[in-house]
């Protein structure tokens, strides 16, 4: 018989906002946080291989979602010609390209808005029902978009696709936080942020290669097969990962250890309600969280770094064609550099960040503060502006194509490295509301990306590549440098801001949201 989630009531826990004893004072051994229970259904007791399988699966899912979100942009002219007609018969072809771009800009916007809509359901009713429903919906929309023959139908499919993809963006960080210990999360989260960035780059590369001898619709058929495979794996191998735990559950001898759920029972779509918080509070919290300085800064970091990549992808095909006379597939292959940069970012933003934080933890008597991983972000203070300068200078002065291509590598490196550190930092600070934290950043990122996708081309036409991307470089540095402020004074800032009026009313969470951290 499937057991519904049971909350073991214990004492009310004081909010520590990420300040935790991570290493034993005497032995210096790592303390497992959260503390695993004796329950075999506790995700922290699952085998390491199974937990890594889930992490890879959710990362692959977000990769394939972004694959289709950005990949077809490399064949924008073909898509425009299919729906509006090709020149010289179509005298308004250039203007129609802007209309066709709505297929992708609206998807990007709805990814953020979709995350906001899915979040209350994810927190209240669990991860699995949203995983299953959103991925089934995404697969349907991918096939729909590939088969659409009218502009309105294609646009509708892409809008709903964005809503479905929004669930994947926010579910992955939550799932990783559910099944990995605090000291493991940096590296695993870096793989997720790499997949988030590499999805767009990989999609552009593969879409470009597909377009050499195939119609652009084949891109959608390939994506449908890949996403459909992920959906099948989610349905049959992905259990509920949320687990209600309390400090008293590991200390009491009176706790009855339940039996391990059977495989069939783990496939149950809905398994109960996981919080008594109202849907309204769950919906409004991501907006109010922006008042908290650490969240606001981390949101700007994600919005800026990913937003500037959106700026590049919105006109790279035109830029490389005009400057280097590249075909779409050749322009797409330049994004191999972006993939390399993203993979390097996994180490520098993940394992290296954990290592730096661990050294400071040992020097601090075993106490971990969320700010201890922030010094590593200084690498991106250099690489992010440099990336945008190389891209702008390379295109503007028609330097060798390797110059803007190195820029693509560095901007993707910076996205994985800086975004992972800033996102994990805020999750460490406010772990019980990790989902709402992620929605705040993803939603704002999508809005910024939506605006940049519209205004990059006019900005470049008015100011030129050199000035436009030079300005972006300055902005990116300005967004990343405040990491020093939070490294030195972040603890005082988060403790003081925690008592602000709107934060007390809308952000403070109920006891049933506690996760043992």
TrEMBL record:
One of its GO terms (cellular component) is plasma membrane. The chain crosses the membrane at residues 52-81, 101-123, 130-147, 189-212, 218-238, 287-312, 332-353, 374-393, 399-425, 468-489. Residues 54-494 form the Major facilitator superfamily (MFS) profile domain. Keywords: Membrane, Transmembrane, Transmembrane helix. One of its GO terms (molecular function) is transmembrane transporter activity. It is a multi-pass membrane protein. Its main location: membrane. Pfam families: MFS_1. It is found in: Membrane. InterPro entries: MFS (IPR011701), MFS_dom (IPR020846), MFS_trans_sf (IPR036259). PANTHER family: MAJOR FACILITATOR SUPERFAMILY (PTHR23502), PROTEIN HOL1 (PTHR23502:SF34). This is MFS general substrate transporter. It comes from Melanomma pulvis-pyrius CBS 109.77. The lineage of its organism: Eukaryota, Fungi, Dikarya, Ascomycota, Pezizomycotina.
């Amino acid at each position: 018989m499937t057991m519904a989630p049971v909350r073991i009531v214990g004492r009310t826990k004081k909010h520590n906002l990420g300040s935790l004893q991570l290493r034993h004072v005497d032995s210096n051994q790592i303390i497992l946080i959260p503390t695993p229970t004796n329950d075999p259904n506790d995700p922290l007791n699952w085998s390491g291989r199974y937990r890594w399988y889930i992490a890879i699966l959710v990362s692959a899912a977000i990769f394939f979602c972004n694959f289709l979100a950005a990949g077809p942009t490399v064949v924008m002219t073909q898509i425009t010609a299919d729906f509006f007609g090709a020149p010289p018969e179509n005298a308004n072809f250039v203007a129609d390209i802007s209309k066709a771009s709505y297929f992708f800009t609206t998807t990007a916007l709805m990814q953020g808005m979709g995350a906001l809509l899915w979040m209350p359901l994810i927190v209240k009713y669990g991860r699995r029902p949203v995983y299953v429903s959103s991925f089934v919906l995404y697969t349907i929309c991918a096939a729909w978009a590939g088969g659409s023959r009218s502009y309105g139908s294609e646009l509708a499919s892409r809008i709903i696709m964005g809503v479905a993809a929004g669930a994947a963006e926010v579910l992955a960080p939550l799932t990783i936080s559910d099944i990995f210990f605090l000291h493991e999360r940096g590296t695993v989260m870096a793989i997720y942020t790499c997949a988030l960035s590499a999805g767009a780059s990989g999609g552009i590369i593969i879409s470009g290669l597909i377009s050499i001898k195939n119609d652009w619709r084949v891109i959608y058929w390939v994506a449908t097969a890949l996403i459909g495979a992920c959906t099948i794996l989610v349905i049959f191998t992905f259990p509920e990962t949320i687990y209600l735990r309390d400090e008293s559950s590991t200390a009491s001898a009176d706790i009855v250890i339940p039996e391990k759920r059977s495989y069939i029972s783990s496939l149950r779509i809905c398994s109960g309600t996981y919080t008594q918080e109202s849907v309204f509070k769950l919906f409004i919290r991501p907006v109010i969280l922006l008042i908290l300085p650490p969240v606001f800064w981390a949101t700007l970091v994600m919005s800026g770094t990913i937003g500037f990549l959106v700026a590049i992808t919105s006109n790279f095909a035109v830029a490389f064609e005009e400057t280097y006379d590249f075909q779409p597939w050749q322009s797409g292959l330049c994004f191999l550099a972006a993939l390399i940069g993203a993979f390097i970012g996994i180490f520098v933003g993940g394992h290296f960040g954990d290592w730096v934080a661990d050294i400071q933890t040992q020097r601090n008597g075993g106490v971990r503060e969320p700010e201890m991983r922030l010094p590593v972000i200084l690498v991106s203070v250099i690489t992010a502006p440099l990336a945008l300068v190389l891209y702008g200078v390379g295109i503007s002065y028609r330097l060798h194509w390797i110059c803007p291509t190195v820029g693509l590598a560095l901007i993707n490196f910076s996205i994985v490295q800086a975004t992972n550190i800033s996102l994990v930092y805020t999750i460490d600070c406010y772990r019980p509301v990790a989902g709402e934290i992620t929605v705040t950043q993803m939603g704002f990122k999508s809005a910024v990306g939506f605006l940049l996708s519209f205004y990059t081309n006019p900005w470049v036409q008015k100011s030129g590549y050199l000035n436009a991307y030079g300005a972006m470089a300055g902005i990116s540095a300005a967004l990343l440098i405040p990491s020093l402020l939070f490294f030195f004074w972040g603890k005082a800032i988060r403790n003081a801001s925690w008592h602000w009026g709107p934060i007390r009313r809308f952000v403070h969470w109920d006891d049933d949201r506690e996760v043992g951290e």
